[in-house]
Amino acid sequence: SLQDYNVWSNRAIIDVTELPVSMMFDDIEIYLAEGDGAYKLYDNITRNASANQITLNGLKPGVEYDIKYYPTLAFTTEAELQVGNAGFENWAEFGWEFEQSSLAGQSSPMTYYKPWSSSNSDHWWDSNTTTSLFDDLTIGYTFFKCYPLVHYSTDAHSGKRSAQITVANIGNGNSVLWTSGTWYVGELLIGKGNDGSKGGWKRSSEGHAFASRPSSVTFWYEYAPYSSSDKFSAEVWLKAADGTVIATASLPSGGSASEWKKVDLPLNYTVLNKKAASIYIAYKASTSSSHSCDRGGTFLEVAGSKGSSDPYRIKLSATLRVDDIQLNY
């Protein structure tokens, strides 16, 4: 017999439940037909006599097979899927208006970005970037008081863009001399959030529909911590349709990297008798419980803009850039 959950993208595991009296386990021959093709002897197999299982190795992803031994079986391998916007090239631009309370009727604009294409309704990624956007600010040093936590950078491993995730201090009391606001830690995740004013962002769902089981997750990153206590984190899970977590991977304490560095996180499958139905990947700019920053703030490139004439001088603790996520099979 062949259970659905035993069919992967590149292998399938057959349970040998019964054999003719005259046939031994080691005598079983496998004949495989790809699509409408002819049956051919298939010898790329692994026998496990103690478990009464035969594994067919080296199969092609997303292909329908027919198999003959005893009895005849048919199956289709999983496709080798990838996550959407894996290179973070697509970003949608939004505008935010906040009032300056010391000047009646005056408002200031702030641009922020979300990690999806404005022409695509299937959004894989979201971020908590609007957590640090506020409605009412006192005049002066507005860049210390209203800042998008997650956006794109033109510093990319490949292509033109990467995701940039920051830790910033936001608040009305901030100035060149003083830091009296609240620290906000940027998060980028596969899922959805509800945007709201005055830091009203809330996570509404985690994960995206996904029907394959990769062996590992690879990504590239740069990380500029402010102090030795700053470490970024990465988390991955796969869930079955009933919500059971079937595989996990994590990087709980990512360290400094001034140039692009590759990470490969093996997925640990703890449930093998269920198929994947959703995938979740999340990055957090810092896991530290305390943060600090330069007195005068930091000029940071946001969506290609940088310099004293731009509104992106902030009280900054750490910056994480992520690019080129790949699922390996």
| CA-CA gap between termini | 24 Å
Q: What is the number of beta strands?
A: 25
Question: Could you list the spans in which at least 5 consecutive residues all have pLDDT below 50?
Answer: none
CATH class of the largest domain: Mainly Beta
Q: What is CATH's topology name of the largest domain?
A: Jelly Rolls
Please provide a written account of the structure.
The chain is mostly beta strands and 329 residues long. The protein folds into 2 domains: 73 residues, Sandwich (Immunoglobulin-like); 237 residues, Jelly Rolls. The chain is built from no helices and 25 strands. The strands form 5 sheets. Strands 10, 15, 16, 17, 19, 20, 22 and 23 form an 8-stranded antiparallel sheet that branches. The radius of gyration is 25 Å and the shape is elongated. The model has no long low-confidence stretch (mean pLDDT 90).
Map the helices and strands.
Layout: E1 12-15, E2 30-34, E3 40-42, E4 45-48, E5 53-56, E6 64-68, E7 73-76, E8 92-100, E9 107-114, E10 125-127, E11 136-137, E12 150-153, E13 162-170, E14 182-185, E15 187-194, E16 202-206, E17 208-209, E18 216-224, E19 232-239, E20 245-254, E21 257-266, E22 268-269, E23 278-284, E24 298-299, E25 313-328
Parallel strand pairs: 8-11
Antiparallel strand pairs: 1-5, 2-3, 2-6, 4-5, 6-7, 8-9, 10-15, 12-13, 13-14, 13-25, 15-16, 15-23, 17-23, 18-21, 18-25, 19-20, 19-23, 20-22, 24-25
